[in-house]
Amino acid sequence: MVKFFMKKFLSKGPEGNRTSVGQLAGVLGFLSNAILFIGKFAIGVMAHSVSIMADAINSLTDTISSVLTLVGFKIAAKPADKEHPYGHERFEYISGFLISLIMTFVGWQFLQASFEKILQPEKVKLNWLVFVVLLLSIAIKVWQSRMYQSLARSIQSKTLQATSQDSLNDVLTTVAVLLSAIVEWFTGWRVDGYVGFLIALYIIYSGIKMVMEFIAELLGQRPNEEELEQMNALLGEYPEILGYHDLLVHNYGPQKRFASVHIEVDDRWSLNQAHEVINQIEKDFLEQLDVSLVCHIDPVAVQDADFQEKRRTIEAIVANVDERLRMHDFRVINPESISFDLVVPKTVQLSDQELADTIRLKIHQRYGNQKIEITFDHNYLLPE
């Protein structure tokens, strides 16, 4: 069924495909979770089991999550407008954040109900229907996880990947409910409240974890290592440039990625020559990595002997202070004024002020009373 619908949706282009696949996941999730909720809640009420009802409410939150998934992908697909020039794709993160809050609240409510069941335990009324429904719900959740994972891979969606993992985790909670029912069936031990309590804790834990993940997405987090390696590898394919630094990456949704970087070039290049090279780099980034890149040109006086001597000497001074420091954007503004940027890894213990004072002192000892301007860079995207 999923493959059938995928064939229908894949012809709509990248943006239409993403929206359609996300909505397909929402519809299939809504229908399957609604069936699970109705079935589990019915047998939970019939059996007077708080653990089964807690598991049912967990399915209800998944049903609500599916609705929010539908709404989230629909709004995220809206084109850019005057108020939102970068589009609306980040709404996918907002819908995930709301799902996480709902999950956490429901978990807290059932934590209280389960605690009361521990203090005042009741006999659970079990029959063959309870076991049949729980076994069917496990099978549906396994299918659901595989369905979400398949759709997530097709559009590279972190939201659907998280939903797939959540469905797989739900299998564990339902297995726990089934085991508690088996234990009470054969031994008469009233463990229903304890299992419900553990499931509620799990729901709260999952909710808080998802809240933190979506907050990180909304705040803007570091790209994954694979993306950075691809960008560094591509920038390393241009022998005509001297180097690059200050790579910054940010996104406005799963398909709206932007980056900027400083490219070092020979200062003897004409403006047109530099433009052609930079333009090709930006074009390759868009075509190969789907990243809108903006390049800043840093001219380097490679043939100026005095410039190169000062650069090598100050690089040695910087390395002597701490070999993990990296210098770039070196400029000799006039015979008595030098400026450069200094990349400071997070592992360096000295403060920026301590580094500046030490480096300035050593440069003054070598070149006399020169004006030294140091710009500190704490960007950790490029290799150290």
What is the CATH topology classification name of the largest domain? Alpha-lytic protease prodomain-like
Share of helical residues: 55-70%
CATH class of the largest domain: Mainly Alpha
- Radius of gyration from the CA trace? 29 Å
Mean pLDDT score = 80
Range of strand content: 5-15%
The CATH superfamily of the largest domain bears the name: Cation efflux protein transmembrane domain
What overall form do the CA principal axes indicate? elongated
Helix/strand order, N-terminal first: HHHHHHHHEEHEHEEHE
This entry's quaternary arrangement is single chain
- Outline the low-pLDDT stretches: none
Structural class comes to: alpha/beta
Number of helices: 11
Total E-strand runs: 6
User: How does CATH name the architecture of the largest domain?
Assistant: Up-down Bundle
How many individual domains? 2
Structure description:
This protein is α/β, with parallel strands linked by helices and 384 residues long. It has two domains: 2-219, Cation efflux protein transmembrane domain (Alpha-lytic protease prodomain-like, Up-down Bundle); 225-377, Cation efflux protein, cytoplasmic domain (Alpha-Beta Plaits, 2-Layer Sandwich). The chain is built from eleven helices and six strands. A hairpin with a 2-residue loop joins strand 4 (326-334) and strand 5. The relative contact order is 0.09. The mean pLDDT is 80.
